[in-house]
Amino acid sequence: PTEHFQTVHDDQDLPAGLHVRMNLATGVKEARLNVPDPNHDNTSSGLTIIDDFDIVGHEPEPEMDFNDHDHDFSLQHPLRPPPDTTFESSSFFAAVSEIEQRGPQNTEELIPALTDLEDLSHSYHWGLTLAQDESMVHKLFQFLLPSDLSLEVRSLAALVLGTATRNNPAALDAALSQFYMDEWPEGPLEAVLMALLHEQAPVLLNRMMFLLSSLCQDKRQLQRFLDAGGIDILIALYDAGSVGSEDQYKLRRKVTHFVVDNLMASDQGDEISLPGSEIDTDWTMIQLHHLKDRPSTIV
User: Fold this and answer.
1) Under a CB-based contact definition with an 8 Å cutoff, are residues 238 and 283 in contact?
2) What's the pTM?
């Protein structure tokens, strides 16, 4: 953290005591050190809303249901260019062009383009634009699969897809519509499960867990996860995160958050008792084994 506001990415953990704000013009969360401002009351810190447009008379948009498959979210929420459209548009399409033109022999040069896409995909507009690009979605899917690609490229591809579809039901619906057909019988979920079963690098596993959480906002994807033995995969993954490093500790946190956000939240509205700030091994493992032993029908 610095004294200047920086973008907070979805896979980042924030230390306590930061000044966090949400920029409504871009939809991006930002944070910095909590620097006292003599012009404002600094007795408390919290979430600051940055809004650069007049909201008088603005009609709130209806709450979006990720699992209402009777609606076409792309029509219900049409693309509207973000405020800083010239710079962001040129950056987005330059990154897309770079990725589409690169062959397998020079994929390390993809890293700056993937980084730019991940940053832009925090925006609802660019996340949906990316998810509607069939060629790009298939390219990113292929990057997830085991290959000679570097771990950084593969983990960035997972981060881009996860960011674009996170809390963006139209983007998630658009991305998933590119799969589960004759030419593409499997989708990102199957690639994620394969990585969680066979990969060992904590950085890659953490980002695959992030993508898994984004995909399982859709109940059909969550059911696929359960049908494929996903609970057993999480149990093995949680055990693998028991050895010492910060990345492995973070992996355990990702598993715990997935259980709470995607599995226990659908448990007939039961009140959830969360573990404390330190990861409670017994709590998480008890929940996983409880989930494993019960019927696994979500939809």
Assistant:
1) no
2) 0.69
